[in-house]
Design a protein that fits this description.
This protein has about 140 residues and is α+β, with helices and mostly antiparallel strands. It is built from 4 helices and 4 strands, in the order αααββββα. About 40% of the residues lie in helices and about 15% in strands.
């Protein structure tokens, strides 16, 4: 079985350059580079990841749409932030549960940045009943 390499050094090079030039004018001049190095490979990964994620659970959703899908947008929400940098300097994807109403439900997260790459499983702000079950399971079997 061959392993496809979705993410190239150009993805991290673009994100490093964006860190140094986080302004609209620079981004617009480099938008084609963003699309080729970051957006398109991430969307391709998301589409292909569907098969593998189904082996874990058919209830998690990899959605390869460029807007409104699993890929997080490149634009930052700066409304309440002191840092008004317009762009995120990482690429990310969220694979949420099919029953989820929003991004805050349980799911898997992929994070790609020049200095950190990680995959996480998460439950964000679970209600008290779910939080108790999670804590009890950790206490009952901390190694698992």
């Amino acid at each position: 079985m061959s392993t496809k390499q979705y993410f190239q050094p150009s993805l991290f090079a673009f994100l490093r350059d964006l860190q140094a030039n986080n302004e609209r004018r620079w981004f617009l001049a480099n938008k084609a580079r963003y699309e080729a190095a970051v957006r398109d490979p991430l969307l391709e990964f998301i589409a292909d990841f569907r098969r593998r994620l189904r082996n874990i659970s058919r209830h998690y959703v990899p959605d390869p749409r460029p807007t409104g899908g699993s890929m997080f947008r490149i634009h930052r929400d700066v409304r309440f932030s002191r840092d008004k940098s317009p762009y995120k300097t990482n690429a990310g994807a969220n694979f949420h549960h099919a029953a989820a109403k929003d991004v805050h439900a349980q799911g898997f997260y992929l994070h790609l940045a020049p200095e950190e790459v990680f995959v996480a499983c998460r439950v964000w702000k679970p209600n008290s009943k779910a939080r108790t079950k999670i804590r009890d399971a950790i206490i009952a079997s901390p190694r698992a």
